[in-house]
Amino acid sequence: MTDETTTAGGSEDPTRPRFTDKRRIDPETGAVREPAHTDAGTTPGSRPDDAAAAPGGDLETAQALAAERLDDLQRLQAEYVNYRKRVDRDRLVARDQTVVAMVEALIGVLDEVELARQHGELGEGPFASIAEKLETSLGRFGWERYGVEGEAFDPNVHEALMHEHSDDVTEATVVRVLQPGHRVGERIVRAARVAVAEPGA
């Protein structure tokens, strides 16, 4: 097919249609034609954005993606560590609350044991063995009995039921323990009930 779009003067006639033969097979010779070059210097079949994508662009993209995944992993790891700490802390709190509730339920029994000890009824026999095992078992969970005569009065751990004045003390002092106190670790289950002597006026 020929292209007859020129005028007698050698210039193209803009009013006449122009035809371009894009057939791969030459109709006259039957030979395969070489593909013509395309616009912007790209080869046929290539995508326009392939030319703009340099090899370094793929590396930068991969590095950015790896950095993003690393940030996600570090955040998840930090969240997991915080979760483990919170679970461990809640477990300890639940354990302490359980021990405190158990001691509160046994305070009457523990008071009877202490009264029996003060009256010399725990010298020998099966009751003495049972009382010792009970107190030893509770001690493994952090329980202890406190309050002794002669120690300084502390309103945070003592409950003063009686007051008196004495020239034998220089500060408020426990002179008699009416009921011993009970605590689990640092938590007061029941304050020691005491009689307090203060310096004389």
Task: Report what the structure shows.
The protein has 201 residues and is α+β, with helices and mostly antiparallel strands. It has a domain at 49-95. The protein is 41% helix and 18% strand. The chain is built from three helices and six strands, in the order H-H-H-E-E-E-E-E-E. It has helices at residues 48-52, 55-118, 126-139, and strands at residues 143-146, 158-166, 173-179, 181-184, 187-190, 192-199. The chain has a three-stranded antiparallel beta sheet. The chain has a three-stranded mixed beta sheet with strand order 2-6-3, with no helix packed on it. Strand 4 (181-184) and strand 5 form a beta hairpin. The longest helix has 64 residues, at 55-118.
Any descriptors?
201 residues, disordered N terminus, alpha+beta, 3-stranded mixed β-sheet, single chain, 3-stranded antiparallel β-sheet, rod-shaped, 3 helices
